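Below is how a single chain appears once it has passed through the pipeline. First comes the sequence as given, then the structure the pipeline wrote out for it. We keep one example in the README because the format questions we get most often are answered faster by looking than by reading.
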Amino acid sequence: MSVYDLMRQRCGLSQTEAAEFQGVRLDTVKSWCSGRRPAPARAVDELRDLYRRILEAGASYAAQLERRGPHVGEDGSARYLVGEPRDDQDAIAQGWPNKAACLAALGVAIAALPVDAAPELVPHDKNTGIPRAGKAKVQSR
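Resulting structure:
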Protein backbone atom coordinates (compact mmCIF):
# COMPACT_ATOMS: atom_id res chain seq x y z
CA MET A 1 0.00 0.00 0.00
CA SER A 2 1.17 3.53 -0.70
CA VAL A 3 0.37 6.79 1.07
CA TYR A 4 -1.61 7.76 -2.02
CA ASP A 5 -3.69 4.56 -1.83
CA LEU A 6 -4.31 5.00 1.90
CA MET A 7 -5.60 8.55 1.39
CA ARG A 8 -7.69 7.52 -1.64
CA GLN A 9 -9.39 4.83 0.43
CA ARG A 10 -9.97 7.16 3.42
CA CYS A 11 -11.68 9.59 1.04
CA GLY A 12 -14.04 6.81 -0.05
CA LEU A 13 -12.88 6.95 -3.67
CA SER A 14 -12.51 4.00 -6.00
CA GLN A 15 -9.50 4.07 -8.28
CA THR A 16 -11.77 5.15 -11.13
CA GLU A 17 -13.28 7.96 -9.02
CA ALA A 18 -9.81 9.10 -7.95
CA ALA A 19 -8.72 9.25 -11.60
CA GLU A 20 -11.77 11.37 -12.45
CA PHE A 21 -11.29 13.61 -9.40
CA GLN A 22 -7.64 14.22 -10.23
CA GLY A 23 -7.96 14.37 -13.99
CA VAL A 24 -5.56 11.53 -14.73
CA ARG A 25 -5.81 8.15 -16.41
CA LEU A 26 -6.95 5.11 -14.44
CA ASP A 27 -3.68 3.26 -15.12
CA THR A 28 -1.81 6.21 -13.55
CA VAL A 29 -3.85 5.90 -10.35
CA LYS A 30 -3.32 2.13 -10.32
CA SER A 31 0.45 2.58 -10.50
CA TRP A 32 0.35 5.20 -7.71
CA CYS A 33 -1.77 2.88 -5.54
CA SER A 34 0.51 -0.11 -6.00
CA GLY A 35 3.63 1.96 -5.42
CA ARG A 36 5.07 1.07 -8.83
CA ARG A 37 5.39 4.79 -9.42
CA PRO A 38 5.42 7.37 -6.65
CA ALA A 39 2.45 9.69 -6.72
CA PRO A 40 3.39 13.34 -7.17
CA ALA A 41 3.14 15.41 -4.00
CA ARG A 42 0.32 17.45 -5.54
CA ALA A 43 -1.82 14.33 -6.05
CA VAL A 44 -1.34 13.30 -2.41
CA ASP A 45 -1.99 16.88 -1.25
CA GLU A 46 -5.30 16.96 -3.16
CA LEU A 47 -6.43 13.81 -1.31
CA ARG A 48 -5.18 15.13 2.03
CA ASP A 49 -7.17 18.31 1.44
CA LEU A 50 -10.29 16.33 0.50
CA TYR A 51 -9.91 14.17 3.62
CA ARG A 52 -9.63 17.26 5.85
CA ARG A 53 -12.81 18.61 4.26
CA ILE A 54 -14.53 15.25 4.86
CA LEU A 55 -13.57 15.33 8.56
CA GLU A 56 -14.62 18.97 8.99
CA ALA A 57 -17.92 18.53 7.17
CA GLY A 58 -18.70 15.34 9.08
CA ALA A 59 -18.12 17.01 12.44
CA SER A 60 -20.18 20.02 11.41
CA TYR A 61 -23.04 17.84 10.14
CA ALA A 62 -23.03 15.81 13.39
CA ALA A 63 -23.38 19.05 15.36
CA GLN A 64 -26.25 20.08 13.07
CA LEU A 65 -27.98 16.73 13.65
CA GLU A 66 -27.58 17.07 17.42
CA ARG A 67 -28.99 20.62 17.38
CA ARG A 68 -31.98 19.42 15.37
CA GLY A 69 -32.43 16.44 17.69
CA PRO A 70 -33.86 13.04 16.92
CA HIS A 71 -37.04 12.50 14.93
CA VAL A 72 -39.68 10.56 16.87
CA GLY A 73 -41.45 8.07 14.62
CA GLU A 74 -45.03 6.84 14.83
CA ASP A 75 -43.77 3.83 16.79
CA GLY A 76 -42.21 6.14 19.39
CA SER A 77 -38.62 5.40 18.39
CA ALA A 78 -36.23 8.34 18.26
CA ARG A 79 -33.84 8.39 15.30
CA TYR A 80 -31.41 10.92 13.90
CA LEU A 81 -32.35 11.33 10.24
CA VAL A 82 -29.14 11.38 8.22
CA GLY A 83 -29.63 12.62 4.65
CA GLU A 84 -28.01 10.45 1.99
CA PRO A 85 -27.24 12.05 -1.38
CA ARG A 86 -29.37 10.55 -4.14
CA ASP A 87 -26.52 10.38 -6.65
CA ASP A 88 -23.25 11.99 -7.68
CA GLN A 89 -25.03 15.12 -8.92
CA ASP A 90 -26.71 15.60 -5.55
CA ALA A 91 -23.31 15.40 -3.82
CA ILE A 92 -21.59 17.58 -6.43
CA ALA A 93 -24.21 20.29 -5.80
CA GLN A 94 -22.91 20.40 -2.20
CA GLY A 95 -19.28 20.75 -3.28
CA TRP A 96 -18.18 17.10 -3.23
CA PRO A 97 -16.38 15.44 -6.16
CA ASN A 98 -18.90 12.56 -6.00
CA LYS A 99 -21.32 10.66 -3.76
CA ALA A 100 -18.56 8.48 -2.27
CA ALA A 101 -16.75 11.45 -0.69
CA CYS A 102 -20.02 12.75 0.75
CA LEU A 103 -20.73 9.29 2.20
CA ALA A 104 -17.31 9.37 3.88
CA ALA A 105 -18.37 12.63 5.58
CA LEU A 106 -21.64 10.98 6.64
CA GLY A 107 -19.62 8.18 8.23
CA VAL A 108 -17.68 10.75 10.25
CA ALA A 109 -20.95 12.42 11.30
CA ILE A 110 -22.57 9.15 12.36
CA ALA A 111 -19.47 8.18 14.36
CA ALA A 112 -19.56 11.56 16.13
CA LEU A 113 -23.18 11.21 17.31
CA PRO A 114 -23.79 10.25 20.94
CA VAL A 115 -23.26 6.56 21.70
CA ASP A 116 -26.96 5.94 22.32
CA ALA A 117 -28.05 7.77 19.15
CA ALA A 118 -29.95 5.76 16.55
CA PRO A 119 -29.05 7.09 13.10
CA GLU A 120 -31.18 6.30 10.06
CA LEU A 121 -30.15 6.99 6.46
CA VAL A 122 -32.91 8.66 4.51
CA PRO A 123 -32.93 10.15 1.00
CA HIS A 124 -31.66 13.73 1.03
CA ASP A 125 -34.37 16.37 0.91
CA LYS A 126 -34.79 19.90 2.17
CA ASN A 127 -35.59 18.62 5.68
CA THR A 128 -32.49 16.47 6.16
CA GLY A 129 -29.79 18.13 4.09
CA ILE A 130 -26.39 16.58 3.50
CA PRO A 131 -22.93 17.74 4.55
CA ARG A 132 -21.51 20.62 2.53
CA ALA A 133 -17.92 20.34 1.41
CA GLY A 134 -15.68 23.15 2.54
CA LYS A 135 -13.65 25.07 0.01
CA ALA A 136 -10.68 23.17 -1.40
CA LYS A 137 -7.32 24.59 -0.41
CA VAL A 138 -5.53 22.49 -3.04
CA GLN A 139 -7.12 22.70 -6.48
CA SER A 140 -7.52 19.60 -8.64
CA ARG A 141 -6.08 19.84 -12.10
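The mean pLDDT is 92.

See the next section for the split statistics.
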